[in-house]
Amino acid sequence: MGLAAVLDPRYKMVGVEFQFKKMYPDPTECSKQVDRIHQLCNELVNEYTQQMSFDVSHVSVGVGTKEVDERGNANLFEGDDYMVYLKRRNMTRSSYVNIEFNHYLEEKIHPPNDPNFNVSKWWKNNRMKVKVPAKTAKDIYAIPVSIITSESAFSTSGRVISPHRAKLKQDIIEALMCG
């Protein structure tokens, strides 16, 4: 849910920091939790970057074979040097996407009280400006919070924490209750 908040242009990391300051009165713990969400965002964006780079380089690598064309010329993309170039380019692209994501975080926050605001439409309109975060947001917002009603989630005579759930960590219980 923290990732979804960060990917909402009305809140971003500022909204997460605001809510976590309410949840965690200890500044050290609050900072730790905010950093954890920021790290998760970076990891997710990096994962999407690698996946999108793999999709592109996988297609390009198909071109990089040692075939000879119809005129008898050797293919210009033969050898390991092209593969090394692709790997370096993907690394550079990855750092660019981190800059792209950080730029998104630093942009002005959309007014939170705009009744006509639609997160999905915002990402669709801005997908060319921040490609990887837009793809990430599209997938994150496609995940339903819950597919069952909250009453049936804990149907053991109205108790939220039953003996078989007593060993769950506090943050997991919180997430279950919120979901």
Q: Give the end-to-end Cα distance, rounded to a whole number of Å.
A: 9 Å
Total number of distinct structural domains: 2
Using only CA atoms, what is the Rg?
23 Å
Structure summary, number of beta strands? 0
Name the shape in a single word.
globular
Which class best fits the helix and strand makeup? mainly alpha
Helicity level: 55-70%
Main sheet overview: none
The proportion of residues in beta strands is under 5%
Low-confidence stretches: 58-74
Topology pattern, helix = H, strand = E? HHHHHHHH
* Helix count from the secondary structure assignment: 8
State mean pLDDT (0 to 100 scale): 74
Q: What distinguishing features does this structure have?
A:
63% helix, 179 residues, mainly alpha, 8 helices
